[in-house]
Amino acid sequence: MVENEFKIMLTEEQYNAVHSMYQWDSELEQVNSYYDSPELLLSERHITCRVRTVQGRYLLQMKLPAEGQNNGAVSRIELERELVGIPQKLSGAELMEMSGAVELPDAELLGTLLTFRSVKRFPGAEIDLDRSEYFGKTDYELEVEYTDEAAAKQLLAEISAEVNIDSNVPVTGKIRRFLAEYMRQK
Hints:
It is a single chain. By secondary structure, the protein is an alpha+beta fold. Strand 3 and strand 4 (about 55-65) form a beta hairpin. It has 5 helices and 9 strands. It has a single domain, classed as Hypothetical Protein Pfu-838710-001, CATH 2.40.320.10. Strands 1-5-4-3-2-7-8-9 form an 8-stranded antiparallel barrel, surrounded by 4 helices.
């Protein structure tokens, strides 16, 4: 599946303001256990490998680059399969079989990122409002995933009319923020 989304980093105040705008369809806790080689070879290739734990299920997920980006949106190929738990290591062969990518290294568990996610669904788009905690840090992010880009842009306009956000500020994805803090603490 190809995932299309707009991402905006928020302050705690902006997060609280957006959170108060909606009656959320669901609010859940996700634990992302991130994997890479000791040399971060997956990250160098813009490949995310994680096991997401949500509602008692363990989902091995890989995100790989998709064709280009437009208008600030990010498109990624997202693959997923269920596991029975959180492994300490994932073999490169297993990752290659799942993704079709070539020459992937063995990957080991680097750590976890806990996300408290509020979800609001609309026709053609979904708001995911995240508070994430990792290595003693907390950050806030607004994601608008979409199948209809116009619907997503309309949602962003509605939010921007209520909360002063700058959708043009470059956003670093969760894995990059996690890895930056991982390297600082290593």
